[in-house]
TrEMBL record:
<feature type="domain" description="RecJ OB">
    <location>
        <begin position="91"/>
        <end position="198"/>
    </location>
</feature>
<feature type="domain" description="DHHA1">
    <location>
        <begin position="2"/>
        <end position="72"/>
    </location>
</feature>
<dbReference type="InterPro" id="IPR003156">
    <property type="entry name" value="DHHA1_dom"/>
</dbReference>
<dbReference type="Pfam" id="PF17768">
    <property type="entry name" value="RecJ_OB"/>
</dbReference>
<dbReference type="InterPro" id="IPR038763">
    <property type="entry name" value="DHH_sf"/>
</dbReference>
<dbReference type="GO" id="GO:0016787">
    <property type="term" value="F:hydrolase activity"/>
</dbReference>
<keyword id="KW-0378">Hydrolase</keyword>
<dbReference type="Pfam" id="PF02272">
    <property type="entry name" value="DHHA1"/>
</dbReference>
<protein>
    <recommendedName>
        <fullName>Single-stranded-DNA-specific exonuclease RecJ</fullName>
    </recommendedName>
</protein>
<dbReference type="InterPro" id="IPR051673">
    <property type="entry name" value="SSDNA_exonuclease_RecJ"/>
</dbReference>
<dbReference type="GO" id="GO:0003676">
    <property type="term" value="F:nucleic acid binding"/>
</dbReference>
<dbReference type="InterPro" id="IPR041122">
    <property type="entry name" value="RecJ_OB"/>
</dbReference>
């Protein structure tokens, strides 16, 4: 249950079940928010604990639950706020998918390698739809699919974005994406793939888009 809630709402989740005077907790978190580190910060209040960054568990005495709950809420609020700030991207330009090709990839390659000091150029494209989508990975955190615009199709992949896609509604929705093109080898064939860094359903807010 904690895993499904965390994946759906993209927030850390702690569920505690009482057994007598002890509470046993199941914890799930999101990328860049370590649930294990938070448990380390309150370990003196816990009977026992264990796990890793994204999944953990602990046992706690009933009378200490409220105190630890308040600490969790304050800590998670700060950490998730920092994560949201890190999600913002500097977009180099609005670039329609139809101009993506070998020439553009060669121009991008000229300014590589990319890293923290030289971030990959990012582009914005609007009003796209998907012909198909498949989720994959642990908890279906990632997805790949076929983007469609004006009858043309483009293979695409999005890592840690599976929670943004609803398989029962995506065919009727329109999307804006932050992306960059990349050359990949799919099924033995070299092709250009659209690497999606963020995706927005058209009726959502655009506060992650910051044009440079």
């Amino acid at each position: 249950m904690s895993s499904r809630l965390s994946l759906k709402f993209q927030v850390p989740v702690v569920l505690i079940a009482l057994e007598g005077k002890l509470g046993k907790a199941s914890c799930r978190s999101i990328k860049n928010v370590s649930i294990y580190n938070v448990l380390e910060e309150v370990k003196e209040e816990l009977v026992r604990y264990g796990g890793h960054d994204l999944a953990a568990g602990f046992t706690i005495e009933e009378e200490k639950i409220e105190k630890v709950k308040r600490y969790f809420m304050e800590s998670f609020s700060k950490k998730t706020r920092n994560v949201e700030e890190k999600k913002k991207y500097n977009i180099d330009m609005e670039l329609p998918l139809e101009v993506v090709g070998e020439s553009l990839l060669q121009d991008i390659e000229k300014i590589s390698p990319f890293g923290s000091e030289n971030p990959h150029p990012l582009f914005l494209e609007k009003n796209l739809s998907f012909r198909e989508i498949r989720k994959f990975g642990v908890d279906q955190r990632h997805f790949n699919g076929i983007l469609v615009k004006e009858g043309k199709e483009y293979p695409a992949v999005g890592f840690d974005l599976g929670h943004r896609i609803h398989l029962d509604t995506y065919l009727a929705q329109s999307f804006d994406i932050v992306y960059y093109p990349e050359k990949v080898n799919l099924h033995g064939e070299k092709m250009i793939q659209i690497r999606i860094k963020d995706i927005i359903i058209k009726d959502e807010f655009y506060d992650i888009f910051i044009k440079s």
